[in-house]
Amino acid sequence: xxxxxDVRSILQQPVVAEELRKWPxxxxxxxxxxxxxxxxxxxxxxxxxxxxxxxxxxxxxRTNSVFLAPASFRMNYGFGVGSVFVDAALLSNRRDLRxxxxxxxxxxxxxxxxxxxxxxxxxxxxxxxTRLAELVRQQKVVSPTLHCRDLxxxxxHTDSFTRYYDECYxxxxxxxxxxxxxxxxxxxxxxxxxxxxxxxxxxHEEILAPVFVEPQYLLGDWDGRCWTEWRKASTPDVxxxxxxxxxxxTTRSKQ
Length: 255
Description:
Blueprint: H1 3-11, H2 17-20, E1 25-29, H3 33-42, E2 44-45, H4 55-59, E3 65-70, E4 82-86, H5 89-93, E5 98-100, H6 105-117, H7 129-142, H8 148-156, H9 159-168, H10 173-186, H11 191-195, E6 206-210, E7 212-213, E8 218-222, E9 227-229, H12 236-253
Antiparallel strand pairs: 1-3, 1-4, 2-7, 3-6, 4-8, 5-6, 8-9
Helix pairs in contact: 1-12, 6-7, 6-8, 7-8
């Protein structure tokens, strides 16, 4: 088998939801090498990055989950020193995962914009801006003297914002992967271009795994240039795709 030809062939495929589910996921980490060794044995445990998290992440309970995303050559999903690859089998074996194709941070930024500059200003990709504007109006009645920064924090603390988050930033797994497929299709992006997040990618994909990710799902760590394998993937299909991704990423990093 000529693996170089196979790599080129598989990464030239269009992004299809069912195919993308077979590729490993990624978790960004700032941990030094000695901590990665513990992670290899203990698994990914939520809350390790809580001190560096946003206030809204803590308020919404997001720091109680491990953040994952489809792999990216750019490692641009909160990734720092390195990334841990997670077996795609997690998608089939864990029923408590939470999926979102956008980051709720866009809604928090919208609250700030509405509070400081009024409701007619552009709020980027925040969902249901009308509802966010209503939350600002309601909170200004309750706390009319608060500075906008403090007012937004008060809004984030409310049950109304938690309901907004659950209704607007939670999708099913099927919708999650279909959204990626449709976005890639609109850009005529193949798998390689998706993993490179070519252009101004409009989605901000995240998968939250409550509490921890078991060690048997952790395949190894990638620092942007070098791969350290921890264990093989659960199926030959996933293992093959991981190797294809790593070969493409290694070639890319040397260019």
